[in-house]
Structure formats: structure tokens, C-alpha cells
Amino acid sequence: MIWIKKLSFAPLFLLILALLIFLLKPLFSSTDLIFSLSMSSLIQFILISTLILIVSFLFSLFATLSQDWRLLIPTGLVASIFPLVFFNPGLGLVLSVGIFVSILLTFLTLEGRLKSYLTFEPSSILGPSIRHLSTFLVIIISVTYFFSINQSIQENGFEIPDSLIETALKLTPQSQSELAELDREVKPTPPPLTAEQIELLKQNPQLLQQYGIDPNLLDSLNQQPSDEKESPNTTQQLLKQTLKDQFQKMIDPYLGLIPLFLAGLFFLTLLSITSFLNLLIYPLLWIIFYILEKTRYIRFEIEQRPVKKMVI
Q1: What three-state secondary structure class fits 208?
Q2: Which of 89, 128, 96, 99 is nearest to 111 (CA)?
Q3: What's the DSSP call for residue 119?
């Protein structure tokens, strides 16, 4: 029975870790999440950060209840296998070794606090270990992202995402007059005929017949051409392509630094969200251990120890 209690949080820890690694795989081959400013990207970052925090929380609970290297090392080895399943051997090995080392370092620091505390306070004993492990995981994930995106850029090059260009256009909107002026520069059109000129030509159809023009075409001159209706879209596409080309020329000399920049941005984003979510750990620890105590899953013993004092 005691072994079941010690291992009770291990399967849940491994399950959430496997889910986290599975969700990371599509992110490592794309830069859209980094450059996108949409709500869906923010939600995705929050989801990844939440899973990192849950993994750290569950491992700390498991390590606290087991306090046994014979249980921790096999669990860590199983956890380190997941990256090898979902990623290619190179990236999987980096992530696998990083996870295993992070688990060992976290347990070393947690074991020291578990052997030296006087009064059991979950927030002061487990809180630092949860923060440390979540930070280790963010670092390892960011390093793996760097290797992944660096390989992708070397093989396929780097292109400014359309989402970034669209965001830039939204932040610098053009007026209708500017768009119309640019459209005239792109596609010049002859000056339109006035209504009086059209009426005069209708009254003298022989003038059109001399030049081989069908008089029935005069009826269509009052209608707006379909190309003119589509000119705003054409202008918008031109602005988008022009801005994209300018950005591309600016970053081409620094192409080798782009993976490092993207990994740094990825790291700062994950670390910021994870640090903010860490504030929820302390009330959650109190609730969990309160439930464990009330259900008699664990119990606390009050000890009285002799104290040695110097008296003169």
C-alpha cells in the first residue's frame, strides 16, 4: 500500500509531460507563433506555460511523497523517452537529456529541504522546486527550439510571415486618398467621359461608326469596371508585397542571427507567462495538502525535541 501511495502521482506526471511534448512538436517547425500577435497565439503560449507548470507541480508532489531514488530514477528515464518518440533523434536527444538532468537537479534540492525542515510548510518546501523545474524546462524547450528553427532556416531559408506584414499594415493604415493615388500609379487609366460627351456621341452614332466602334458600348461607360472595384485589394496586395520585400532585404545580412533571436523571444515569452502563473502555485499547494490530510492519504506527526541552550 505504501508503494502505491508513493507512486500515485507518477503516472499523472508522465501523462501531462507526454501531452506537453506532443503539443511542442508543431511549434518547433514554424515561426508564425512568435510573430503573430493574435489571441490564438497568446492562448497557445498560455497553454504551453500551464502544462510546464503542471508538470513541475506533479513532479514535486511525486518526489515529496516518494523521497526515494529507486523510484525517481526509473520515472525520470521513462520521462526522457517521450522526446525520442515525438522528435527526430537529434532534437529528441537534446530534449531528453535536458528533461532528465532537470529532474535530477530538482530532486537534489528538494531532498535537502525535506531532510532539514522543522515544520512542514508546502509553500516554502515545494514552491522553490516547482519554480526551478519550470525554469529548467523553459530553458531546455527554448534550446531545443533554437536547434529546430536553425535547421529549418538552413534548409528552407527564412521568409517574413504574412501575419507580421498584415499586422504592420494594420498598425499603419493608409487613407483612402493615398490608396487611390497609389492605385493610379500602379495602373493608370484614361480620364472618363462626361455625361454630356456620352450624350453627344449617342446623338451622332456615325462618328463612332467611322472608327469602327459599336454605339452600344456607350451604355456600359456609366458602369464601374470590375477591375476598379477590385483596385483596393490590388493596392493592398502591392503594399503587402513591397513591405515584405523591404523587410526581407533588411534581415538578409543577419540571417545567421535569426534563430538566436527567435529562440530568445520564445524563451522570454514562455518565462514571463510561466512566472506569472507561478503565483497560483501557493494556494494550490495548500489546497492539495489539505485534501490529502483530510482524506488520510498523509498524516502529520508533532514532535517535541530537546533544545540545548547556553547558560552563564
Answers
A1: helix
A2: 128
A3: S
* Contact between residue 129 and residue 282 where contact means Cβ atoms under 8 Å apart: no
Report pLDDT digits (tens) over 197-211: 666 666 666 666 665
- 272-298 residue pLDDT tens: 999 999 988 989 999 998 898 888 888
DSSP secondary structure, 153-200, as one string: HHHH-----HHHHHHHHHHSPPPHHHHHHHHHHHS--PPPPPHHHHHH
Contact 271, 132 (CB under 8 A): no
Burial 82-101 (b: 16+ CB within 10 A, else e): bbeebbeeebbebbbebbbe
The C-alpha cell of 182 is what?
497609389
119-133 pLDDT, tens digit per residue, is 888 888 899 999 999
Which residue intervals of the chain are DSSP H helices? 2-7, 10-24, 32-35, 39-66, 69-86, 89-116, 122-156, 162-171, 176-186, 195-203, 205-210, 226-229, 231-251, 258-277, 281-294
